[in-house]
Structure formats: C-alpha cells, structure tokens
C-alpha cells in the first residue's frame, strides 16, 4: 500500500510542477496508460522467449503463474509462496 501512495504522491507532485510551469502533460492520460500497459506486456516477451528457446512447454498455467501477476500488479497470496 505504501508503494501505491508514494506513486500517487509522485504523480501529484509532477502534476503540480507541470501546472506551475504552465505546460501540459506529454501524453493524454488514456494514451499514457495504454503505453504503460504495453510496457508491462512487453516485459513478459523476454521470459516467454527464453522459455520457448529452452524447449520448455509454454502452458497457460505457466503464463498465469509467472506473467499475469507482473502485468496486473496483483501480488501472489501467501498460500502461493509456500
């Protein structure tokens, strides 16, 4: 939760600085969010390619366990850590 609040605070601070300098943000919010989503999805191409090149199976279960939490930002539950 602390990381989310720090991120929000940093965003607000940058917004205030932009307003004081009377400049607009570099991208409309929807475009910026889509760009961030693209970055998160793109980061998963490397582990996917490594797994494919090492002849390990690419299963939906592996994708959901390894990639989906990194894309959605959902932390694994304690039972998954065991």
From TrEMBL:
Provenance organism: Pelomonas caseinilytica
Protein name in UniProt: XapX domain-containing protein
Membrane among keywords: yes
InterPro entries the UniProt entry points to: DUF1427, XapX_domain
Keyword Transmembrane helix: yes
Protein keywords: Membrane, Transmembrane, Transmembrane helix
Superkingdom per UniProt: Bacteria
Transmembrane segments: 29-49
């Amino acid at each position: 939760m602390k990381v989310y609040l720090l991120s929000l605070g940093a965003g607000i601070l940058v917004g205030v600085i932009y307003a004081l300098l009377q400049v607009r943000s570099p991208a409309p919010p929807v475009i910026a969010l889509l760009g961030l989503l693209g970055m998160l999805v793109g980061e998963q191409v490397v582990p996917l390619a490594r797994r494919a090149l090492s002849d390990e199976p690419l299963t939906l279960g592996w994708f959901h366990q390894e990639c989906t939490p990194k894309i959605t930002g959902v932390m694994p539950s304690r039972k998954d850590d065991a």
